[in-house]
Amino acid sequence: MAVFAYIATFFTFAALALEVFTLLGNTYNVVLLRDLYFARLTLSDRFIQFGLWNYCIGKDGAVTHCSTPKPAFVWTEAEGLDRLIQGLEGMDKVFLTNFILYWVVFGLTLLALAITITTHFRRTSDLLASFAMFIAFLVMLVVLIIVLVISIRGINSAKGSDRSASGFPGPAMWMTVGAMGGLLISSFWYCVTCCFGPRRKVADGDEKPSPARGCLPLLLPFLLWRGTR
C-alpha cells in the first residue's frame, strides 16, 4: 500500500508548488510572476491587477509598472481606485486575515510534506499529515471565499462607477482552487495510507497489529456518535 503514500505526497507537493507561485505572483514585473494575479480590473485607458502583496498596472495587454510589495496589501490603495471603487473601505483587517491565512495553509502543507518524508510514511505521521491537510483545506476554502467576495464586490462597484469597466478572476484564483483540491485529495490518501498501510511489528514481539488500529483516531468521533444513538 506504499503507493497510497506516494500519491498523497505527490498531491501535497503539487499543492505546495501552487501555493508558492501564488505567494510570489504579481510581486514584480518579470516573466511569469506578473501573470499570476488574483483579479484584473480593466478600465478605458488601463488595467489594474491585484495580488497578495501589491498591484500592477498596464495597458494594451502589457504590464508597465508594479507597486512595491508589502504584506497584507489593501486593494483599494491602488492608484486611482479610491473614487472608483466603493464598499471596500475599512477592510484592512480582512486583507490582513486573508494574508495570514494563506501563510497558515503554506505552513501546514510544508509541515505535512516534511513529517511524512522524514519519518518514512509511518502511520502516526500519515495520521498527522491527513489531519493537517484537511485543516489546510478548510483554511484555504476560507481564503478562496474572501478573495472571491472582494473581487466580485470590487468589480461590480467599478462597473457602477464606470460603464467601461470590466473585470475577471486571474490565474492565482484558479491556482488557489487547484491547491485546495490537492489538499483535500492528499488528506484523503494519507487517511487511506494510515488505515490500510502495511502491517508493522510491535517493538517487543512479533505480533502484527490490525491495519484498522491506525484508523481508530479517525473513526473515534463516528463511533462515539453511534454510541449515543
Topology:
Blueprint: H1 2-24, E1 39-42, E2 47-50, E3 55-59, E4 62-66, H2 92-118, H3 123-161, E5 166-169, H4 171-196, H5 216-227
Antiparallel strand pairs: 1-2, 1-5, 2-3, 3-4
Helix pairs in contact: 1-2, 1-4, 2-3, 3-4
Q: What is the gyration radius calculated from CA atoms?
A: 22 Å
Number of helices: 5
Largest sheet: 5 strands, antiparallel
CATH architecture: Up-down Bundle
Strand order of the largest sheet: 4-3-2-1-5
CATH class: Mainly Alpha
* Anisotropy-based shape: elongated
Query: CATH fold name, please?
Result: Butyryl-CoA Dehydrogenase, subunit A, domain 3
Distance between the termini: 35 Å
Structural key phrases:
five-stranded antiparallel beta sheet; alpha+beta; 229 residues
What does this structure look like?
The chain has a single domain (2-199, 209-227), classed as Butyryl-CoA Dehydrogenase, subunit A, domain 3. Mean pLDDT is 82; it is low at 199-214 and 216-223. The chain has helices at residues 2-24, 92-118, 123-161, 171-196, 216-227; strands at residues 39-42, 47-50, 55-59, 62-66, 166-169. Helix 1 (2-24) packs antiparallel against helix 4. It is built from five helices and five strands; from the N terminus they run αββββααβαα. A five-stranded antiparallel beta sheet has the order 4-3-2-1-5. With 229 residues, the chain is an alpha+beta fold. The protein starts with a helix and ends with a helix. The longest helix has 39 residues, at 123-161.
